[in-house]
Amino acid sequence: MEPISTPHDYLPVLVQAAIAVGFVGFALSAAAFLGPRLHGRKKEESFECGIEQQGDARRPFSVKYLLIAILFVLFDVEVIFLYPWAVNFKALGAVGFVEMVVFVGFVLAGLYYVLRKGVMRIE
Amino acid sequence: MAALFYILAAISVISALTVVGARNPVNSVIALVVCFLSIAGHYVLLNAQFLAMVHVIVYTGAIMVLFLFVIMLLNLNKPGGPRKSLAMRLAAAVAGGLLFLTLAAAVRQGVAITPAAGFDPGVGLVRHVGQVLFTEFLLPFEVSSVLFLSAIVGVVMLAKKDKDEAPDPHITGPERARRTA
């Protein structure tokens, strides 16, 4: 029996998170201190590409995109079940493999339905 | 460890208050992401590592994407949102105050929570969750896949009701006539 992992094993994650947040904070504050400040109507436009901007970026869009997001959530939850299965793959043996094939089979049936319905096709 | 808990708890509470108080809904979502991450930290402190991972991947990753999509769909151009009437605000204050009173009374009663069994520090690890999930709780696990299937079908049925959608090229003949009717 291998020793169980404890919260102390997550110390590297904490250190990495601290470094990531620290770097972003440093970069943003350094940019605020060192960078020049120029204001003006042209400067504060959303896009400075020489083309006049038209309208607003915030406009209603098709619910199809939300559909893709919801499907992403569903398949994300499915992937969650793969993690404990992968960790126990050898211990569970052939029975565990069949269990997971049945599970993935059902979800794949859903994916086939989604593709047949043409949800992923966006004009 | 205790210091870490208090830091995480402070981050959780402050970010949760920011979620409620932020004027811009996108700022609310970002604060909610911070809140979820700090709660995942709490799970790690409790050695519920599987739960921590699920929390980060599903809630912080997927659910927040859904929230951002909903904000985009809502088209919230006006900052601040609609002003509530005085009666509405009064009712909200009374309801919130009563809930706070109930919670405070419950905490003051000091309900002694005793664990049903001795604490096993390995119970929340991915390996142990998997061992139980694929043996003892096999049927609920397989039924959850049927639940996913029904959720996928339900989502598609609900959302894909555009009348002007292009006819499905896979469906031909009488089937197409029936669907377009």
Rg of Cα set of chain A: 25 Å
From the alpha carbons, calculate the radius of gyration of chain B and give it in angstroms.
Answer: 23 Å
Structural class of chain B, please?
mainly alpha
CATH topology of chain A: Methane Monooxygenase Hydroxylase, Chain G, domain 1
Query: What string, H for helix and E for strand, traces the elements of chain A in order?
Result: HHH
Distance linking N and C termini of chain B: 66 Å
Number of alpha- plus pi-helical segments of chain A: 3
- The appropriate CATH architecture of chain A is Up-down Bundle
Largest sheet of chain B: none
- Provide the low-confidence segments of chain B as ranges: none
Please describe what this structure looks like.
The complex is a heterodimer of chains A (123) and B (181). Chain A has 123 residues and is mostly helical. Chain A is built from three helices and no strands. Chain A is flat. The model of chain A has no long low-confidence stretch (mean pLDDT 84). With 181 residues, chain B is mainly α. In chain B, 71% of the residues lie in helices and 0% in strands. Chain B is built from seven helices and no strands. Chain B has helices at residues 2-21, 25-45, 49-74, 86-109, 126-133, 138-159, 174-180. In chain B, helix 1 (2-21) runs antiparallel to helix 2 and helix 2 runs antiparallel to helix 3. Chain B is extended, with a radius of gyration of 23 Å. Chains A and B meet through helix 2 and helix 3 of A and helix 3, helix 5 and helix 6 of B.
